[in-house]
Amino acid sequence: MSALHVPGPSPLNCLITGVGGQGTVLLSRLIGEAALMKGMDVRGSETIGMAQRGGSVVSHLRIGGSFSPLIPPGKADLVIAFECTEALRVLPFLAPTGNMLTLDRTLAPASASPRETACDSKGIIARLQNILSERLTVISWEALVKRCGSPRVSNVALLGAAIGRGLLPFSVDEAAAALTTRIPPRYLDMNLKALFSAPAGC
Fold first, then answer.
1. What residues have CB less than 8 Å from 107, skipping those under 6 apart?
2. pLDDT in tens, 34-76
3. Is 4 inside any structural domain?
4. What is the pTM of this model?
5. Which of the four, 48, 86, 141, 195, has the lowest number of CB atoms within 10 Å?
6. What distance separates the 2 farthest-apart alpha carbons in the chain?
7. Which residue in 107, 148, 146 sits closest to 21, CA to CA?
8. Distance between CA atoms of 127 and 31, rounded to whole angstroms?
9. Better-scored residue on pLDDT, 139 or 23
10. Each residue of 109-145: pLDDT tens digit?
């Protein structure tokens, strides 16, 4: 079985993609905060566009060894995607040895039927698997929500899943410390549950 290319502690170029309202920017902030707490240099930027209307949101996060906050095409060591259409769209940013972690769902127009949405996502995942092979990790959206208890914490669950697969340069405990600085106290318990349950169950 082929081993994943696991980025070292520094540098790391991480691209996070989704649509408005999914928590893309918060995930970027959490990763950056955890890296800063380990003494790593962090630079980042977002291209938000029509985020409030469900448009694409892309966060660039560069940990160590970089002066520009934007990741050039072909230089992302890790792509984390909240849905597979966005994963396919940003594929040109992925480095030849980079890894991608994506949810297995698409956010289809309201007029689309569940069957049409399922067919679209399966086709996109199959295309990504054909291109990336073992460098692709697909996370079940249904399993993630069932294990974590709420779709509202999917961003933190993806963080836990990426850490559990060795794709980020810090531990789940170090990420939990970052959560306490970014998440309001009334939401902290549910987010910690998502973070710690994701590596084993997603």
1. 19, 54, 83, 85
2. 999 999 999 988 876 554 555 678 999 999 876 788 999 999 9
3. no
4. 0.85
5. 48
6. 48
7. 107
8. 28
9. 139
10. 443 445 445 558 889 999 999 999 999 999 998 888 8
Burial class (CB in 10 A: 0-12, 13-18, 19+), 67: exposed
Residue type, 151: P
Contact by Cβ (8 Å): 100, 78: yes
Q: Give which of 68, 23, 53 is closest to 182, Cα–Cα.
A: 23
Domain-located, residue 5: no
Dig out the tokens for 6 from the structure: 């696991």
Instruction: Please give the pLDDT value at position 178.
Output: 95
Count of residues for the chain?
Answer: 202
| Number of Cβ atoms within 10 Å of the Cβ of 74 | 11
Q: Which domain holds residue 16?
A: 12-201
**159 domain residue, yes or no:** yes
Tens of pLDDT, residues 65-90: 767 889 999 999 999 999 998 999 99
Q: Is residue 67 part of a domain?
A: yes
Considering its fold, how many domains does the chain have in total?
Answer: 1
DSSP assignment of 129-158: HHHHGGGEEEE-HHHHHHHHS-GGGHHHHH
Tell me how far apart the alpha carbons of residues 6 and 21 are, in angstroms, rounded to a whole number. Answer: 29
And the tokens for 185? 């106290």
- Give CA 123 to chain center in angstroms: 20
